[in-house]
Amino acid sequence: MKVDEIKELDAYYNAADYKLKIPKLNGSKIEMCGDNFYKLSKGKLAHTGESTDHDWPEVNEQDCKGNRVFIGEPMFYFGSSAPEIPSNTGWGSKLIRQLKRRSVNVTYILGGRCSDPWETGDFETFKEFLNKSKIDGEPKPIDFDHWNSEPENKSSCAG
Questions:
Q1: What share of the chain is helix, strand, coil (3-state, %, to 5)?
Q2: Would you give the end-to-end CA distance of the chain in angstroms?
Q3: Distance from C-alpha of 76 to C-alpha of 16, rounded to nearest angstrom
Q4: Cβ contact 49:19 at 8 Å
Q5: Which of 3, 49, 62, 159 sits a CA distance of 20 to 30 A from 106?
Q6: CA nearest to 135, candidates 72, 75, 83
Q7: What does the alpha-carbon distance between residue 11 and residue 116 come to, in Å, rounded to a whole number?
Q8: How does pLDDT run across 55-80, given as a tens digit for each residue?
Q9: pTM exceeds 0.85
Q10: 90-101 and 120-133 helices cross at what angle (nearest 10)?
Q11: How far is CA 12 from CA 18, 19, 94, 111, 133, in A?
Q12: Domain limits of the chain?
């Protein structure tokens, strides 16, 4: 994802633009999905209970400590169709090392704080690789009857 905006979790929860990202426990399969479930409660960030995702103490603590949501486009999601990362390129070997160190959570590859930062040239080559590796259509969840009827939102990632 190319990050266009960073919001604190409570601001994300209260922003009109992201209300559709608040999950509804008794909604349709699409409505039950969403990543907007942290807000201030008694002056402290807390899980709203509107989702069962991330609703256990260790993950709550980690998410709230980060207190940020990354919003942006384009966002690439490959799922099980992910292309093999070429280890014979500068960016590929750096990315492989980063993924081995941190296979979960956000990894900054350009900007931010990273022990193995990318050069601008690496990033341009990586973007070309992503564009060439795009799969036809977007990967869709299994059994989501109303997938195409929901409004589009920018992608977001809490971290």
A1: 35, 10, 55
A2: 13
A3: 25
A4: no
A5: 49
A6: 83
A7: 31
A8: 788 888 888 888 999 998 887 777 66
A9: no
A10: 80
A11: 7, 9, 32, 23, 31
A12: 5-74+143-158, 79-133
